[in-house]
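User: two proteins, same treatment. go.

Assistant:
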Amino acid sequence: MAVVETERHGQVLVVRMNRPERLNALNSEMRVELAKTWTEFRHSKELEVAIFTGTGRGFCAGEDMKESLQKGKPGSQRPDLEDPFMTGALEKPVIAAVNGFAMGGGFMLVERTDLRLAVPEAVFEVSEAKRWLLGGYNHGHIANLPYPVAMEMALGFRFTAQRFYEVGFLNRLVPAERLLPEAIAMAEHLLTLPPASRVNTVHMMRQMRPAPGPDMQRLADALHEHGAKSDLMESRAAFAEKRKPNFKGWNDPEDRHRLPTLKSLPRAEPAKGRE
């Protein structure tokens, strides 16, 4: 059984993650196959719009925890082949058809799409606060959401599709039996536009999305290291074993009061060629 399935509808490509027994969790094999699929889609002269969806109850559950535990290290390894969808090199529009759970890395896949439909039963979660030493501080910012909503996302609260529709993260809510037809209808509208207009507009809109500046990224990098790194694997083991985690927090308890700040970080090196 292929972990990524595709089907064509004229100039529209449907990309379907297909590990329903694992809620389409992103193991190494799926990451490689997605990279291949998006690369082929990018270079195709016949295909212009993609619809991204999943099989079963999940759109994508994110990191495959069992694979991480087997490897003995947190997170998923990026494939050697560049994935243009993940790097932003893909110029063609992608529509998310969210059929169920979109958690962690699965939420981040939805976040990278340009238009988004979901079934009312879909559930979303930014899971970084549960698996790393810093929560997903940037996701609400990228989505232009108010501070309290962005904070709720960063701290790992779950969101219903209805809630995300109300705050503007989703374009439409549709019943499961209408999910793919509605996504195809949106794709067909895009195909009525002049090709250069479609590609240029998507590119321009993507460039206008907010993003944390370099200083905030430096601070985030420091915070990712500020705490007991053993908690990263403990969170994954507890999840896999369906038990309450036994977190350490900090190697030195006083580090709770020694949070990195922009003032405490080493100054960034100036760009080459600048005074």
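Protein 2:
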Amino acid sequence: MHVNSSIDMSTLEEKTGRNYISHSAMSTWLNCGWSYYLTRIQKVSENPSYWLVGGKSVHECTEWFDRLKPELQSIADVDVRAVFLNYWQENYRMADNGMPFRAGGRASKQYPNKEDAQWWQDNGPKMFHNWIEWRRQENPYIPYQLSGGDYAIETELNVEVGGVLMKGFLDRLMVSPEGELTVIDIKTSTKEPASHTQLGTYAVMCERTIGVRPTKGAYFMARTGELSTPVDLSHYTEKRLASNLRGFKIAIDNNIFIPQPGFMCGTCSVNHACYAVKGSESHKYPELGESDE
């Protein structure tokens, strides 16, 4: 039997069904090209994860709070657990595809199954509480008001850079106590990202779509309730972003999907379909140009 012996030379849009690039797509490809190929092009069924359900729920909780009237934000007695569980239940239902859920973190005496559903139901509300406390602090960061009157809260950004369309969702654009326009991304992970590329990318996109250029960027670490040290974003330019996007598109158009086996493979959503780790279903997705005769 001959399987997948020819190399598909269709374009990114034809391969993925999307005419745009996102930061998360580029990150997936940079971390592991084969994971990108399996998830974005082959559309392999993915094992859902508790952390994606939990992270999405925390984001939706913070948006719910930030869209309250300002006078209510300072006095409202928020039942953080009830609000979180409401979003959690819906997001869990949507994520459940019958495949086993992946759990992050480490096993402990209290949570022997690592950061599973119970862990998130206990700790997700705490992360939401941390956001509320941070927003209520003295001299707080204030959401930036857009020209139409709405605030820059979970704002969709669509912009063409270097002839390539890019889409992103900006968690927050806020004004610091010092008056600096700041890109803020909410993270529910344990560690702060080592790179600020996401923040810089959104700064460029803000300038193009909103008409203002954020000067700083920071991560709100929901587990601790602390904002990372704001960093300067001036060196992230549209020219550099355009170069990255063009390079990414060229790679996808030319079927450059290189696997990157490592410690993250154990929690990958498609490791069952990956030949690099001898996944149980990897025979269904041979290497490009590989034949099975």
